[in-house]
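Re-run requested by the PI after the first attempt was lost when the workstation crashed. Everything re-entered from the original request form. Ligand of interest: flavin-adenine dinucleotide.
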Amino acid sequence: MTQTSPVFSCEFFPPKTEDGINKLTATSKALAAVKPRFFSVTFGAGGSTRDRTFETVIDLQEKSGIDTAPHLSCISSTRENIREMLTGYQDKGINHIVALRGDMPSGMVEAGEFRYANELVAFIREETGDHFHIEVAAYPEYHPQATSPDKDLANFKRKVDAGASSAITQYFYNPDAYFQFIDRCNTIDIDIDIVPGIMPITNYYQLTRFSDACGAEIPRWIRKRLESYGEDLESIRAFGEEVVAGLCAQLLEQGAPGLHFYTLNRAEPVLAIWNRLGLNTLQQN
Ligand code: FAD
């Protein structure tokens, strides 16, 4: 891990409406000004946003000039679908990708031709060699379906061995979970950068819903404070900013190789944390 050149990145979801597209254009412009190393765009469960993800990636990269990485999930895709998407991205000069298993859309029971993300990473390498920088997901608090922490770690290593270039974590608010995870990765010779995923806190109920779904823990002291603010959004915002900026500062001070912000298509919460950290002095080239 490096302390001299941290990698900052911002994740968006593909908007559905004209209004959403305009809002994302403004958000990406505001965030591009602080020069993150890359943007990424999520991929809806079961490929539901396949075309919108593609269009959003191309649009963002063209308008902002910032390297933009599509997320690509494989759980309900065929090899042919994935091959087509990879070719489409290669043809447009995209060379960075976030490779995921994804989750089954509700109502679907049959997996496609890929069962796990390591199979997708291996397929991307087979098909496209070294063209793509491949990011994979990592879970410091363990994936909710993992049968044990050891097996989850071994499964993470499969993705690295299959050719992942670096990883982005699920968000967390307990830095010990991250550093413990890194220590465990080091003991089994995982040597790629593992960048913490950062979720700004702006809306307590939304955060609780996301966290329950993805297995991220909100520590009791944070939960209690947020609950105590009720509908007072200004206090939630101020407290959330203080907590998340403190987390980011500690992660960077103790050697995290960068920060990946889950923006939910909003610039202000990220910029507020960025400014608190004095990150404007660490701009990426
Ligand atoms: P995997 O690495 O395949 O792991 C899934 C589970 O299977 C784990 O429990 C693991 O231990 C187990 N496992 C893995 N390999 C094996 C194996 N070979 N044998 C047995 N068990 C195995 N979801 C979306 O739908 N769209 C997105 O755009 C999206 N972006 C994300 C971005 C980041 C940074 C992160 C952290 C998550 C994102 N997700 C996204 C959520 C992700 O798709 C889910 O968490 C999904 O449940 C797991 O995906 P994965 O790639 O981590 O799967």
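Saved to the shared folder this time. The pocket of flavin-adenine dinucleotide is lined by residues 42-43, 45, 71, 73, 98, 100-103, 116-118, 137, 143, 145-146, 151-152, 155, 158-159, 168, 170, 197 (CB under 6 Å).
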